[in-house]
Amino acid sequence: MTPALIDLAAEAAGKQSAEVTDWAGRLGWVAGLLLFIALVYWLMRQGWKWRGELQSGLPELPVAPEEQGPPKLTLSGRYHGSTTAGQWLDRIVARGLGNRSRVELTLTDAGIDVVRPAAADFFIPAAALRGARLDKGIAGKVLTEGGLLIITWEHGDRQIDSGFRSDHAAGHAAWVETLNAVNSMNTTTTTEGAAR
Asked: Do 146 and 136 touch, CB atoms closer than 8 A?
């Protein structure tokens, strides 16, 4: 073995990690990082509360009537949130509409009963339905094209898009077809009433 290789082997064998001697500096960095994360979380929470206060004029959500009639369609899946109709990034957080959760939808002649185990339930009356479509996104959630069932409905003076995803996405088309038929009947009834 050449002297250069012997020196290199000895140097490699002698190298070891330096012991950490500046514990106070490292702990300071960790504490600073944790404080920064807490600040960001607090600011996000304040933004959520501020948005809720801006939307405080939204009336209380309707509750399901005692007698709704037999179910026409049902859906099990996820509720992804609600936005101002046509503005998929303008999330509505007031009245619990911003809380994502599991959902059970039931369509009857009276309307759509929205049951959410992790959030407040609400009801969309049939007269308030304005249509349905398949879309790929709603505030904070983007899926493949047609992955979300968007139901447009009117509450107070505001039109709302609510996004749902079924556990069996093939059932979305039946919901769109049925809800658009209900909306068409609502529009016809309103037009005939106005003509009288």
From this structure: yes
Question: Is this prediction's pTM over 0.70?
Answer: yes
Can you read off the two tokens belonging to residue 90? Answer: 């303008």
Burial class, 88, CB count within 10 angstroms (exposed 0-12 / middle 13-18 / buried 19+): buried
Residue 56 and residue 130 in contact, taking contact as beta carbons nearer than 8 Å: no
* Residue 116: predicted pLDDT: 94
Note whether 162 and 148 are within 8 A (CB). no
CB 162, CB 97: distance < 8 Å: yes
DSSP state string for 59-126: PPPP---S---S-SEEEEEEEEEEEETT-TT-EE-GGGTT--EEEEEEE-SSEEEEE-TTS--EEEEG
The residue ranges of the chain whose pLDDT is under 50 are: 195
